[in-house]
Amino acid sequence: MGIAFGAGPVIESAPTRQDLVLEFINEHVTNHASDGHTWNLPFLHIPFLDWLRYDWVMLCVAVVVSVVVATIGARRHRPVPTGLSNVIEALVVFIRDDIAIANLGAKEGRRLTPFFCSLFVFILSVNLLGLIPMCSSATGNINVTCALALLFLVLAVGLAISRRGVLGFLKSFVPHGAPVILLPILVPIEVISLLARAFALMVRLFANMLAGHIIIFAMLGLVVIFGYLTFPVVGIVVALLFAFELFVAIFQTYIFTLLSAIFIGLLLNPEH
Amino acid sequence: MDLSHIHLAAIGAGLATIGAGLGIGLLWSHGLQSMARQPELLPKIQVSMFIGAALVEGVALFALVICFMQMK
């Protein structure tokens, strides 16, 4: 890093430890936030597998995990389920009662419960896989959360159009009983608020997942800068941050599912 | 004086957390007061408080994302 005072010459010193740590954190973060670098097996290198990308592999693993968990959980052993089936049933009942029916009404809520369950289990597996040491969190990549937010947007607009027709959907952007003079201001605000909700869903999930990783890297970077004697204290702090990140992973999936249900409900039944 | 060595993005991210802290603090204080007044509404108020906290944090994280974009 250069130091410049006034009109003097710029002095370029040798890269300090701080620079190396910053560079490592930057490279790791931008690799997660952008396209992602290639993935290969943890300790081998097979040139044949160089076309795989990190987050793409993580998404496939998460899909496999979700399908396996749901298939095992959905088998009907006996009238009162035990074990994993019990957990899955509790989860589905929770999503059906508190998320789907509370926001969409009884009929639409039952129809859309499978969508919210799949969304919940998928985002939960993607988030939790990011906590395993050699894996990364696919939702730490903004392209993945953009796809999830687009999923919500397409579903919301598609449901609204199928219920009321295209003209009815466009008319729902006009607030009921507003003076005609204010319409050029109110209608763009309504349209932008729908897009802003999808954008906020995307950014909220992405930033929460990425910030957890970055904080842990920055704390471990402190150990590199200040020597290995600081490791016990920093180790305890990092362990606590890890526990907090576990809570954030589960909480953010609940928030994503709940908010998408609320916004779909608001779009289907515009409050007069 | 050349100020290129000051990381303004980090200062911006720090400022953003002021808003988040204020928002979440006010939200929970009013929520706790109302929960104390009417304990039978506890589950509904708790759920609403969590939703509100997520929305406020979302706004603060917009600023954090812009800070991420400043990293080279």
Describe the structure.
The complex is a heterodimer of chains A (272) and B (72). With 272 residues, chain A is mostly helical. Chain A has one domain. In chain A, 71% of the residues lie in helices and 1% in strands. Chain A has helices at residues 17-33, 54-73, 84-104, 106-129, 142-171, 183-226, 231-268, and strands spanning 2-3, 11-12. In chain A, a hairpin with a 7-residue loop joins β1 and β2. Chain A is globular, with a radius of gyration of 24 Å. Chain B has a domain at 27-67. Chain B contains two helices and no strands. Chain B has helices at residues 8-37, 42-69. In chain B, α1 runs antiparallel to α2. The longest helix of chain B is centred in the N-terminal third of the chain and has 30 residues, at 8-37. Chain B is elongated, with a radius of gyration of 17 Å. Chain A binds chain B through residues 1-6, 26, 29-30, 33, 98, 200, 203-204, 206-208, 210-211, 214, 251-252, 255, 258-259, 262, and chain B through 1-2, 4-5, 47, 50-51, 54-55, 57-59, 61-62, 64-65, 68, 71-72.
Count of strand segments of chain A: 2
Biggest sheet overview of chain B: none
Order of helices and strands of chain B: HH
Task: Indicate the mean pLDDT of chain B.
Answer: 86
Largest sheet of chain A: 2 strands, antiparallel
Low-confidence stretches of chain A: 1-8
In short:
With 272 residues, chain A is mainly alpha-helical. Chain A has helices at residues 17-33, 54-73, 84-104, 106-129, 142-171, 183-226, 231-268; strands spanning 2-3, 11-12.
Helix and strand arrangement:
The complex is a heterodimer of chains A (272) and B (72).
Chain A: E1 2-3, E2 11-12, H1 17-33, H2 54-73, H3 84-104, H4 106-129, H5 142-171, H6 183-226, H7 231-268
Antiparallel strand pairs in A: 1-2
Chain B: H1 8-37, H2 42-69
